[in-house]
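Quick one - first record:
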Amino acid sequence: MIIIGGFLGSIAYFIGFFADRIEILIFTHGLLYVIGFATIDGPTFYLIVQYFDRRRELANSVLVLSESFGRLVLPPLYRYLLDVYGLRGTMLIVSGLMLNVVALAGLLKPSSFFRTFSESNVVQIGET
């Protein structure tokens, strides 16, 4: 789900790059971007429970802190990008930045269902 959310967020900004009317931006950022990042928040909090037995509260606090820190840092970054590259250039750059969510989600270890499924299909060398 996190990978899908990262793709939707990136696609929202990428389509916004080609937007020539405000209605398109309302659709991309009001619908695609929100749905994309709503699919990221839930699974990340679930993964905190799955990955951390000890110090789960600390891990949850770091997750919430990172979201708040991003909300603090991104507006000045957007302002800088808008001043230097304009609206279309900023949309394209932020689209590329959003693809980092996909790359980082690929580093997450699979859940126990996928581990069990993949281990059951492994054939040992020498087995016939």
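second record:
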Amino acid sequence: MAVAALTIPGVTALKVGPPVSQKGARGYEFALTVEFEDLQAFREYIPHPHHRLVAEYISNFSEGTPLSYQIDTSREARL
């Protein structure tokens, strides 16, 4: 199913996997990350039919609300 998301224009990477440790995972059993060429590609990804398929697939077996947020990698984070 995740392969469908890779066919969406502007998607440059997709990774899925479990946490290395459940400590700090807040009960989440896996994460899915998607990287895009740019902000416009992200905006076009949201309504894309393949994204809707992946989102529906995940919602069929997940409990609760998925955590979703975006980060701007074009700006350097100072930690």
